[in-house]
Amino acid sequence: MLTIIGALLATLAPFASADADWDARIVGATGTVSVLLASEGVSKPYPAQDGLPLSPGDNVTTGNDGRVLLTLSGEHSITLLPDSSITISSVTKSQTLFDLARGRLLAFISPLSSDQKLSVETPQAVAAVRGTEFGVDAGASQASVGVFDAGHVEVFSPSGRVLIGPDQETSVAPGKTPLPPRALTRRFLRYRPFLKALRRQWRQVRRSWPRMARLNRRVLRRRFMAMRQGRRPAPRWRRPLLHGRRPAFAPAREGRRSERGRRRRERP
After folding, report:
1. Using CA atoms, how far apart are residues 182 and 165, in angstroms rounded to an integer?
2. What pTM did the predictor assign?
3. pLDDT tens-place string over residues 231-252
């Protein structure tokens, strides 16, 4: 009996480990957005494209006209605003970590379970969330974190920590304790007009996600690299998730490809 149970656990282990990580992907890039696939040993950034899977070590940077939407398995979304740079440090569900070196982001995080954690680290502090709508602004002299309509965020630095709730924000200077919670200032209030559109975009991604999840991450990354390094012609730009299409660098559907090949072989 123990042998049977051990064999069953060994069979299920790969599925359990696969389920332990979020599936991080780019699902909406506009303007100047570059991605550095450091996990592939690449030292050159490439223009980002919708549908590209991201792995720990990858960096995404936006120019002064750039904006990009990232998703974690279609459940959570992070919008990186212009002049920003973020590195995916970990996508493990038990400890998800993004490193925001500079710039601003807006995030919609669904409620996390008790064994899941998600944090955004800046040079001055770390913002840990359980499920909320929040924004982070990482400047040269301080970092600011604000919560919009729901949820709480714990902001901590080496000197102390503070918990902020809906319609509150805090700021942290290097080596200092986070300031006590205060009402949202213009730093975050200016983004309120965009929140409705971002929520709608997030819901659209969640509806479209099952189609994207079926595409193999490893194959997509390999084909993206081949396309960017000139080993295959660059196809037409597409928006796979927001408009329900596959990535431009995705492999052709095997059924359709094999059917075309069969017809060509049967021609006299």
Report:
1. 10
2. 0.81
3. 655 454 444 555 556 777 777 6
Pairwise CA distance, residues 93 & 21, whole Å: 5
pLDDT value for 196? 87
**Which sign, positive or negative, has the C-alpha torsion 256, 258, 264, 266?**
negative
Question: What are the tokens at 172?
Answer: 């942290």
Beta strands in the chain (DSSP E): 24-30, 33-36, 46-47, 59-62, 67-72, 76-80, 85-92, 95-108, 118-121, 126-129, 133-138, 143-147, 153-157, 160-164, 168-172, 182-183
> Among 3.40.50.300, 3.40.720.10, 2.60.120.1440, 3.90.76.10, what is the CATH number of 26-213?
2.60.120.1440
**Residue labelled with tokens 């042998």:** 3
Tell me the one-letter amino acid at 82.
Answer: P
Measured between alpha carbons, how far is 107 from 127 in angstroms, rounded to an integer? 12
**What count of Cα atoms within 13 Å lies in the side-chain half-sphere of residue 79?**
22
Instruction: Name the H helices within the chain.
Output: 2-18, 186-189, 192-213, 217-228, 254-266
Q: What is the CA radius of gyration of the chain?
A: 21
Q: Domain limits of the chain?
A: 26-213
Give the pair of three-digit tokens for residue 215. 């595409």
End-to-end CA distance of the chain: 60
Query: Reduced to 3 states, what is the DSSP secondary structure of residue 151?
Result: coil
